[in-house]
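Teaching assistant here, posting this on the class forum so everyone can see the example we discussed in section. The complex has two components, and the goal was to see what a joint structure prediction looks like when all of them are supplied at once.
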Amino acid sequence: MKISAIITLKKDVLDPQGKVIHQALDGMGFDNVNEVRQGKYFEIDVKENDPKKAKEIVENMCSKLLANLVIENYKIIETQ
Amino acid sequence: MKSSVITFPGSNCDRDMDVALRKFGFKNKMVWHNDIELPKSDLIVLPGGFSYGDYLRCGSMASKSRIMQSVIDFAKSGGLVMGICNGFQILVEAGLVPGVLLRNKYLEFICKNVFVKLDNKESIYFKNLDKEILELHIAHNEGNYFCTSDQLKEIKDNNQIAIYYCNKNGQIEDEFNPNGSIKNIAGIFNKEKNVLGMMPHPERMIDQSLSGEDGSLFFKNLINNIK
């Protein structure tokens, strides 16, 4: 089954790419933005049909490889 | 003295490091990332480059490669492991030194000479080195050292900060910080000081006619300290 995970930067970690995107948006006339933070999205098709087990597998992947927990948080956002 | 340089797919400073180590007396071996066992070594070097194309996060894929378990065991048993540039990124991803290396503050790839100040002159890497301020080369996109405030306190308390960016007089100020690193940190030790990660490339400063000799001082001193 497919599991989706998002990885986001922790709030006190500087995100220079997010800042530049914010500036670009400003320049395009989107002047109602407070902040932009850039993250990563993963869609993983796991050989497991039990949603609970599949989620556990992807959580394990997130903590061991997909996210660096010093600077990032992860969240499983969808199972299907 | 025996050394080993690990080559990952995408390493590009491995042969420069080999040249430098041999020049100053190491019997160096090149080791492929997919090997399991390390040759008998007094020093292991993780070289600079772009291992695995910097996919996911710089150094993250290389830190999980097969040889790394042996490198981690070697480091945990007190063996000397040095990571330069991408090698430093691999060390942080492997958890051998604390912190992470983020994208440079101004989003530029930086390629230039910088001055750095060595700290912790008792460590095997720096003791007996006459010069405290060295001119070395940096070339990186992700060299912005970051750690949590708890980690920063811990690394300060344990004297783990190895190298700072500074000016030629050794002043450590914001204006001499090329990439936004916390406290101008350019290099860091593990708690036991046998593992050293640093962004500057000493192997690029071993020939007066090409660049400079401050890297020579570092390697000459290092081999004497290990003997």
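For the discussion questions: The first strand of chain A starts at residue 2 and ends at 9. The mean pLDDT of chain A is 93. Think about how each of these relates to the inputs above.
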